[in-house]
Design goal:
This protein is α+β, with helices and mostly antiparallel strands. It is built from 20 helices and ten strands. It is globular.
Length: 498
Amino acid sequence: MLAYTSRYFNVIAPLARHFLQKRYGYDLAKRAYDGARPIYRQMLADCPSVGDDNPMASNLYESCVFFAMYRAAEGDVTPEMLREVTRDIFSLKATKLVGLAMNLNRPDDVASLNKSLREHARWVEDHPETKPYTWDFNFGDTRGDTQVCYHFTQCPLNDFAREQDLLDVLPVMCDVDYLTCELMHGKLYREHTLATGGPVCDYLMRGDRVAVDAAAVACEGDGATSAAEQATRQGFISRAKSLLGLDGSSSNQEHLNIDYERHVEYLPATKAVLVSRLQARFGEAEGLALWERAKRIYEGYCADLPYTGGAKNLMCHALYDSLMCFAYWEAMPEDRRESVEEFTETVALVFNGDSAHAKRNPEWLTANNRPLLRAVGPILRPLADLAINRRVQDGSWSNAWQMLVNPDHLEDVPLQVVLVGCPVVDFAREHGLLHLMPAMCNPDFDSMRELGIHLIRPKTVAMGFDVCDSRFVGDRTALAATTPARMREDGFLVNGDE
């Protein structure tokens, strides 16, 4: 709970009432204001125990004013109405005075804000009893005096809103971050919030006179590398370019002790996800130490790995990023490792990004456009033969996949891709990791949501077959409706006829 104080209510509620009345009338504004105070008092009593003197507690105190007025209006104030009211409050001349005290275009002010946020983080360390309830600061590359970069994986405001059935209005409070940043003559670059189901609440703030391309950079460096700033923001096309090595990301960035003529690194986006997951589970310092341990394990994997073409193989990252996921899992203390279900979530973020919030393509550009999907086969078949299959068949590449396109000529399936053999399964078998293969295979079913693809997969090498048979149809077709995925006893998702 939070100790009751009226000062936040006495400042914010009259302003909110004024703008509600101005926009929507006296009666509604009066009802929302008059009924809010007892609700506000009860909400503070129900708030998470973040500590009354927590420098971040004001976020809860202030948000509860809006929550209370929203609740007191009994449905007559909508989230969008409340959003307009918050914008009105931030447009006041008195509110804009904040810009005189803090300007993110001034290096000293950026450094001051970074220092203040780290002091907030130290307060939590000095009050460990609040850790289960309060915000967890994970800092990225603050670059001293040029940008502010951090993220949360835990937010008491998010927890409170979910408990109080206020999730519909919580994004309004998250939008206040943009307004606050504007007051400081800055811009907030954000991809995810916990309120909307994202893995983190991410913040990258720079002065509003900084060019967009220069500002919208990933937060890497002295702390957590936010998955929200890298891998999870990618759509399918961007992820596919990375996985195929077409974006220049196969270069030596980590300076690993591996033979770069034979092997490649995992993608930077993969690092982003895995570091973020480690730090969310183990804390900043231990998470980074475990990441270094994972890198050493990865180096050992590569030392014993047969040559599969390295960067010349268009499918190389399907293998090497899988190996990094295995290294990540093995690096964790045995008694604190992720479960297979948790590991599945990690792998899904690595290979799919935040598919739950992927923006769907226009319908003509989805798999439900059957002629479009069918046209992929004639393009993919010669590419697979030229770039992959001939190298495997002549022995140049050992133990790599072969790709067969539409081998069964199925009338009701516009595109079928069959992979012969699987180096990931062979690796898992050799290293005693076969129990993790469901986590490697199952995320494929949700990997291309924005393209409207429904995956039909009756068999995989991991399930004991010689091939992985993947069939792609539109997610709004009759065939998709009759082939829902089901879970086998061994944990693999499957559909279609085996």
